[in-house]
Amino acid sequence: MGGGIAAYKACEVLRRLTESGHEVRVVPTEAALRFVGAATFEALSGNPVRTGVFADVPEVPHVRLGQEADLVLVVPATANVLAKAANGLADDLLTNTLLTARCPVLMVPAMHTEMWEHAATRDNVATLRRRGVVVAEPASGRLTGADTGKGRLPDPGEIVDLARLLLRRPDALPRDLEGRRVVVSAGGTREPLDPVRYLGNRSSGKQGYALARTAVQRGATVTLVSAATVALPEVAGAELVRAGTAEELRSAMHEAAKGADILVMAAAVADFRPTERAEYKIKKTDHDPRPIALTRNPDILAELVEARAEGQVIVGFAAETGDDSGDVLEHARAKLKRKGCDLLVVNAVGEGKAFETEDNAGWLLSADGSERAVELGSKSYMASDIWDAVVAFIEA
Length: 396
Known about the structure:
Elements: H1 7-19, H2 38-45, H3 61-68, E1 72-77, H4 79-86, H5 93-100, E2 105-109, H6 113-117, H7 119-130, E3 134-135, E4 139-142, E5 148-152, H8 156-168, E6 181-186, E7 191-192, E8 198-199, H9 206-217, E9 221-226, E10 239-242, H10 246-256, E11 262-265, E12 272-274, E13 294-296, H11 300-307, E14 313-320, H12 328-339, E15 343-348, E16 359-366, E17 371-378, H13 379-395
Parallel strand pairs: 1-2, 2-3, 6-9, 6-11, 9-10, 11-14, 14-15
Antiparallel strand pairs: 4-5, 7-8, 12-13, 15-16, 16-17
């Protein structure tokens, strides 16, 4: 842990990791302890906190911590810590641990914009990434004092999600999307009935946000088109575009698609919308309710496929339950053929499946006829599998 004002947010990261069953040892710098005291970290982790290499010498902590770790997470990673790590300096327990670690290392920067954009910092980040260290993209927003800009520590939940992903799959975040422009839609649209009510669906947007998050960390320039039902923290490093109705999502996706290399339609778009929207709230009366006339919404995925530029890769999503006419995969295969996209992610939906859950599973179908299952895991775990498939499709 580096010595920056964002150190207080590390307490929430620590709490979430320990509550999910992980054994955590906190290794702060002396500067970090000027922001948050050792007692706080010891209480949250249940382990002693040390900063120097001469404490508890018989246990050789400057070697043992790195050797025994499954993941080293540096949050916040200040410009100073990044510089020391890139140059192999080891003048405290944290930097010694970084040198002895052979597990995945995730460094989450937090600093002022000018420091993040300085050539020295950019060179240090590039060096660390070349060596296989995952250096997360910082968020944009309020910094110390009245300053705003890029360099803000990402939301603690996002940091924990990336840590969990690397613990399960250490190779999940290669920099294989660098130079690619990616557009991801997420969430569920809302189609107004009146100023109060709407037709919607149960999509939380978590899978789309996970796709955007992992794409950013794999080096892509990401635009996230987020539908109205999403109430999630913004994805660090991604451009956010808000959309409410299917028509708004349609316009946003067509605009964002210009010049994009990869489009992912993860949003759950309402198939129908009310033909008319009441100007005032529909009142409850003693009479039977008036039937609601519906009209079909545009097929955004099909439109994007038809309008796509040469070489543009398009990924669709299918939420299926199966019925008397076919099972989930049979319906998905028909949809892939009908839509004409390159890849189709298939989710079996229902109570406790896909929508409004933390984990996900499904299948990946390709236009070349290949199919494979994606085992149950976090939505970021599924996202990493999807990006693997996209990269393989591009390189084929």
